[in-house]
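Morning F.,

Quick status update on the modeling queue. The single chain you submitted on Monday has been processed. Sequence for confirmation:
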Amino acid sequence: MKFMHLSDLHIGKRVNEFSMLEDQRFILDQILDLAERERVDGVWIAGDIYDKTVPSGEAVVLFDEFLTALADRGIFCFAISGNHDSPERISFGARLVEQRGIYLSPVFRGEIAPVELQDAFGGLRIYLLPFLKPAHVRAVYPEEEIENCEQALKVVLSKLQEHWDPLCRNVLLAHQFVAGAQRCESEEFSVGGLDQVSADIFQEFDYVALGHIHTPQWVGGETVRYCGTPLKYSFSEADTEKTVTIVELLEKGNRKIYEIPLKPRKDMRKIRGTYLELTALETYQGTSVEDYLQVTLTDEEDVPDALGKLRSIYPNIMKLEYDNQRTRRGQSIETSAPENKTPLELFEELYQLQNNQPMKENQRKLVSELMEKIWENQ
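Structure tokens below.
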């Protein structure tokens, strides 16, 4: 059987106050087309379906449309809740939608019964493990010694033995941080590494479809895999190509895994230069000016209303920053006695400390004239 591995849709997410809902609708439509083209039997969604535990109405409608489209195409869907999701909301109506081939992880109460499928190569068992914290597992197994995620997952996986068939192909959907995985800025961090689990605890599975990390990668072996987000959600991912992962499970111990690139509605890019360079026609003509941009201005002096002016060319600037002598070598400003210095001399010292360069003659003249006007009006 052939499956598409997805995770971390974060439907309803806002990035730098920009709603990503239309971008998510666009990429989900593209994913549906790819699923048909690749003739996948099912889609795995490894958590963080929504960006908030209480998602907006628009986000819920979009996910409902996606699930309905999969069901209408006869494609199975297996989805678990992530740390951004409410397990109760994700599992609502689970027994009803199973009739259409949609399988949603239940609220964790200790029992993780697999979904059992059959194909020409025999049995296939898919285990849906929602995002778990140690407290979730301690509540179910108070007799167990559980202090971190590693111990919690070991306890949970040990309880699968009553359903385990070593002759079947066994697949796990999980939403956890596996030690050694590379993180990016758009993910949540846990202090002290208590959220980490070892890839070794998954060694009995034929494939582990992971969610939680936004960059596609495998950890400890190609069968323990993060597929990454279908969209970029931070500028730390600007140079990352987003993909979907296709997993074809053949006979026991044999599989094919490959990635297919995704093309976003609007890319997330970084551009830099002086204000005059970035507003020159030859700089932006023929480029995707509608992309989400982080702009770095290299002008030594701040450009008045730079963001507003730049947005007349690049309407979707998410972030504007400066890279110049002042920002590269920030200096602390300490107050000291005037030492009989003139107001203009004091102002020049302040300017030097703030900008790491002396005032120009035209600036000095302007400040002097302004000071004279202020004193005349007093």
